[in-house]
Amino acid sequence: MKWSLPSLALARPVTTLMAVVSVLALGAIAWTRIDVEFTPAFELPFVRCIIPYPGATPEQVMNEIAIPAEGQFRTISGVQRITSTSDANGCDIRIEFAWGADMSLATAEVRDRMERLKLTLPQDVDRMHLRRFSSESMPILAFVLYRHGDDEEFARLVRRILQPRLMRIEGVANVAILTRPEREVTIEFNQRALRSLGLSIYEVVSSLQAGSLSVAAGELTDGDTKYYVRIMGEYDGLETIRNLVVAPDGVRLRDVADVSFQAREPEYSYTIDDQGGVFLLIMKESSANTVDTCVAVKSEVEAVLADPAFRGTETLIFFDQSDMILSALNSLLQAGRYGGLLAFVVLFLFLRRLRPTLMVAFAIPASLVAALVVMYFSGMTLNIATMVSMIIAVGMLVDNSIVVVENIHRYNQL
Questions:
Q1: Nearest-10 crossing angle of helices 354-377, 321-351
Q2: 43-to-136, 184, 219, 260, 299 alpha-carbon distances in Å
Q3: Three-state secondary structure call for residue 182
Q4: Contacts of range 147-152, beta carbons closer than 8 Å, 24 or more positions apart
Q5: What angle in degrees, to the nearest 10, is found between the helix axes of 321-351 and 290-305?
Q6: From CA 335, how far away is CA 393, in angstroms rounded?
Q7: HEC sequence for 186-205
Q8: How far apart are CA 325 and CA 316, in angstroms?
Q9: How confident is the model at residue 269 (pLDDT cuts 50, 70, 90)?
Q10: Which of 149, 255, 285, 295 is in Cβ range 3.0-4.6 Å of 173 for a Cys bridge?
Q11: Alpha-carbon separation of residue 88 from 118, 122, 267 (angstroms)
């Protein structure tokens, strides 16, 4: 007898039964441990390098930052296109690579060029930001909090209380807050006063930088006790800044500039239904379960909003990946149930035999469970793409099962 899978199953029914039970057991374990995501993991082949340079003209940013940066990034292997945008806030450089490029290696090379670039950039440039784009950088949950009253004070309350508590949740990688800018010390210089006193803005800024100091100054030892010495000279209020001496002849900052504590003019406006608030975007860690993380975040938000400090706060969730994932998962389970039921009814009406009908009805969920085993051990996740594929596979499985069982029944009657 020629070897085949059906002949092996018929020759060793106990072995076949134990193999099926083992696969079902592994599938049950995989069902509880497999990661659930919204989309398959992917990474876009480009990175952004953002170099802030506030206060400069776009032409100055282009000549002093964009052109040298493009020269450095052009030496990276695999670069297909470099696009830069220069404005009064700084330079935004987009570096595109070929599809399929190793983005971890490409990012490392970009970081290396950024370190080289620091040697040639103006001294005022003290920060550079590098951003990669992948499925992990997409927010899994987005919601807004709002209440009547002082929006600025409410945003400060969210940053001080809610954001740290959300960051402590297992699986949360970052919590981004979108709202109006925070208040900060603003110094507006009087050009006429500076010219009349023979002062330059550079001299005044140098005095400001020297007046705010907090550095370690060594240590003192007294017997068995060691004291660490630190020079503390930070500004403690607006009056201290206004009264700062900025020239040898006793000229104070208030004589040449207006010092205030206010928010910058916002570049963007964040509203929903013409109502402002605090928008929060939740990003998860790469190994975290999306559904579990969303549930934990929503539970923590409810617990925080129960605090009296947040009395009167309303919340609105306008993007939730867990809802989409659970909806697709329910569709998969529903397709399996309906497919098994229809196969059972159709086969029983045509064959009028219970045994082959039950075999087909059992084969549909068993095949889905076996697929979970393969997905789990191959590192795949349950996401929109894999669940839709499994829904389509259920339909094909029903058709093929009906054809095979009907042929077996016809063969036995010959």
A1: 150
A2: 8, 37, 50, 45, 30
A3: coil
A4: 147/277, 147/310, 147/312, 147/313, 147/314, 148/312, 149/312, 151/179, 151/180, 151/276, 151/277, 151/278, 152/180, 152/182, 152/183, 152/263
A5: 130
A6: 10
A7: EEEECHHHHHHHCCCHHHHH
A8: 19
A9: low
A10: 285
A11: 20, 15, 12
pLDDT tens digits for 294-316?
A: 999 999 999 988 888 888 888 88
- Summarised one tens digit per residue, pLDDT across range 50-67 is 888 877 788 888 988 889
pTM for the predicted model, two decimal places = 0.65
Gap between the Cα atoms of 173 and 363, Å rounded: 41
37: helix, coil or strand? Answer: coil
Phi-psi region of 128 (alpha: psi -120 to 50; beta: other; left: phi over 0): beta
CA dist 396 and 385 (Å) reads 17
Cβ-based neighbours of 104, under 8 Å, separated by 6 or more = none
CB of 313 closer than 8 Å to CB of 147: yes
pLDDT value at 414 more than 70? no
Q: Which residue has the higher pLDDT, 378 or 201?
A: 378
Question: Of how many residues is the chain composed?
Answer: 414
Backbone angles phi, psi at 306, to 5 degrees: -75, -10
